[in-house]
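Q: Okay, next protein. This is Alpha-galactosidase from Candidatus Borkfalkia faecavium. I've checked the sequence twice, so it should be correct. Can you predict the 3D structure?
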Amino acid sequence: MIKKKGQYIRLDTAATTLVIRADTAEYLYYGQRLGGGDIAAIPSAGKKLFSCPGTNDYTEYSLLFESADGGFAADLQFSKARVLAEKPEIPGLPSSYGDGKTLELKYVDAASRLSLFLYYTAFDNSDVIAVSSKLVNGTRKPVRLRRLMSLQLDLTGDYSVVTFDGGWARERQRHERDAGCGIFVNDSKSGYSSHAHNPFIEVKNEYGVYGFNLVYSGNHKETVERGTDGRTRVLVGINDYMFDWALPVGESFYAPEAVMCWAPDEDALSLRMHAFVGEHIVRGKWKRRERPVLVNNWEGTYFDFNEEKLLSIAAAAKEAGAELFVLDDGWFGHRNDDTSSLGDWYDNVEKTGGGLASLADKVRAMGLSFGIWVEPEMISEDSDLYRAHPNYAMKLPGRKPVRLRNQLMLNMADERVQNFVVRTICDVIARSNADYVKWDFNRSMTDCYGKGIPAGEYFHRYMLGYYRVVCKITKRFPFVLFEGCAGGGGRLDLGSLCFFSQYWTSDNTDARERIAIQSGTSYGYPQTVMGAHVSACPNHQTGASNSLEARFNVACEGLLGYELDLTKLSEEERAEIASQISFYKENRKLLQFGDHYRLQGKNTAGFITVSKDRNGAIAVVNLLEWHPGDPAPCIRLKGLNPAANYEVSVREGDWVRCIGGDVLMQADIPLPGLFDFEAAKRWSGGIMSRMYILRRQRS
Ligand code: DGJ
């Protein structure tokens, strides 16, 4: 809700309030929802909505441009404020959606006639405020834009910064440090949001926590700067690394949308971000819809398969109760390893037994849906595409390109390349009549170059091209379930989730490792988007062994799948998997759409998902380490109704007891029956995991 009183504007969500003073371009307040007091009485603390060089504010600025006369300074003064009835779309870029009146603020530099527009939309039901900005060149000469951040938030006080960092197979590990005095930067320069630093960050102190994210999948930058004047400035936007955009006369540059949220603690912040992603980012048929249990052949076969092998896995998948069979990498061109064929999106008839269409029909005849893997933005030098169009590849003239995973990238900034990708990928989906598509992206950008594209514009033009392509393809197949993937979860960000309703969280399928990866991901993203698969034992990434029960329990934190050769398992294991899938389907709504909380204890980690009415919950507790003589592990649950009694049972076991919600949440309790200490004595280093089912007792 937006209320305007002269120059004072108040944006409310259910639990937060943002107060802006338009004429002085200031934030007066952002945090827990205010009562009905006079907002004009809030004293100014000099917290600005934007900043540019040329003033005595020497903190990192949100806007930098060079005018035709070579000057960098801008004196942007208030011009007007209005409330738009609908949230405007951002041309060429994905953004959040939903009923949201939007505040538009305009500031003009009188000398140059350059205008800065800021947009604020408050989403009541998730307590998130979406912010974006636009620069319009009203001058008589082109200007060069060097930086336009999407969001600036000035705060007072001392903060710590939480980021989610890692690499391939270890995405989104949580790190917290004192912001200190000076500048802290979280960013990506590799052309995609990256495995290294996710754009979601938190800025925390004893009064609460602010969360920030960017609806963008390219180079991003979040800075937190504690100035010597006691202000802490947060900037979120496109990375200005190598960024230099020529803005012709009369044209606009649109920065991607950023989002911010305040909450009293990290658990509450996650719930708000989850609601926001579920309601205002994920869209189309799969929004709020239960996701199918899939079986993917990647870790089961890698590139080594034929029709018979695939159909035998599919048959076992059907028998176990899975709903979707996904054919991963290796079905096209002459691809038998990762050195060839990317770009040749035609069927390898030998490996698929006559092509995708016939394979898909056979899978469907078994009663399963059919899904297909593609990696549309890539090209192998050993491909017909490269032989015919070497200039489609992203590479610098006269230089040997950097090969990563033996492949090059396509120059998606080029419209001809975009059209090629749209045409060929649409054809793959249409000819296989796919129900699901896994869109992979397995390398970072290196030789950024496209003929005629200025170097300073390349990264962003790539993103605009990529979004054009993915938008066209997903619109053409509105019923298909698209899952994003980038060598695991390297491009899991809000921009991706506007097109892909779910995302492959990590190539690391080891249960122990997954606990940290999924927990880190869950700070900013809901379990409804996290692909989580049970894979073979010993695990292919770590060599570690974990019980089938532990692997299943951990995968239940996300969207359940199996990624192993089911035909190689014993009868007992297949029966166990069938019972896991049947349990998951029965409880899928709760697991996928309940309120998700992380559970953390001494040597334990897991999660609990609570139904919206708090009458039911499922908790998974994993004991990460155990030594003989250790006291019984204790747990403390979250999100339950403190006034209710719950019947608590163990999924694999006969222990049942009725316990109050308050006790379960307020006491560290060593629940009897939690762990099998006989098994623990024979501990082989794997995690010990239990799933608890909680049902509210009717009094
Ligand atoms: C990386 C993905 O994350 C894997 O799941 C798999 O699809 C491979 N690529 C295939 O090359």
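A: Here is a summary of the prediction. The radius of gyration is 26 Å. The chain has a mean pLDDT of 95.
Q: Noted. On to the next one.
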